[in-house]
Amino acid sequence: MLKPITEAEGFLLDIRYATPDNLTGRPIYARPVAMLLPLAHGRLLRARDQAAALGLRIKVFDAFRPIQAQWALWHAVEDKRFVSDPRTGGVHPRGAAVDLTLCDAATGAELPMGTGFDAVQPESAHAHPGVPLADQRNRALLLGLMVGAGWQPYLLEWWHYQLPEARDFPPLDASAVPTGPL
Fold first, then answer.
1. pTM, to two decimals
2. For the CA atoms of the chain, what is the radius of gyration?
3. What are the residue boundaries of the structural domains of the chain, listed by start?
4. Is 99 annotated as a binding residue?
5. What is the pLDDT of residue 182?
6. Least confident of 8-12, 121-125, 144-148, 174-178
7. CATH 3.30.1380.10 fits 3-164, yes or no
8. How far is the C-alpha of 52 from the C-alpha of 138, rounded, in Å?
9. Is 92 annotated among the ligand-binding residues?
10. How does pLDDT run across 52-107, given as a tens digit for each residue?
């Protein structure tokens, strides 16, 4: 059973794949919800608490991604290093990955990270030398918070984190998203 990530828990939500403001140019989710496996949800709460102690909030762009949506991304992205093959399940369809950033708790403004979320370009990689030093520090802060809470980074995408044991869980389809209130 997947657990929703909510604003009531102190998160900011910007579920991009429920809008046309994503790399496909069209919504691929019917509902703007973010959900994770209970284990992943608990670790995200730990990261939230660590961020709050620093005057920061976590903004979530994506979490559980139904396998149907994984196919839409697979077809939209030319550089396959930036999207997992749906035939092998990926980690988002297992409810074991999250895409996120850090925001100032007082203003809600995103900390600069050198590229936007889902920027399919070399500069999206952690420690890319073409990213300004201040933005690298923000990425390093996010990395420290997430790794400290039990997450593993994907080194080509500063925004993507997954459970180290992500592949122990089966991929899920759109039927895992509830139709009623969360």
1. 0.94
2. 15
3. 3-164
4. yes
5. 62
6. 174-178
7. yes
8. 15
9. yes
10. 999 999 999 999 999 888 888 888 888 888 888 888 878 999 999 999 999 999 99
pLDDT at 181: 63
Beta strands at 56-62 and 12-13: parallel, antiparallel or unpaired: parallel
Please state at what angle helix 38-52 crosses helix 133-148, rounded to 10 degrees.
130
Query: Is 123 in the active site?
Result: no
Catalytic residue from among 7, 9, 157, 165: 157
Compute the distance between CA of residue 92 and CA of residue 157 in angstroms, rounded to an integer: 14
Structural tokens at position 147: 């790794």
What is the predicted pLDDT for the residue at 73? 87
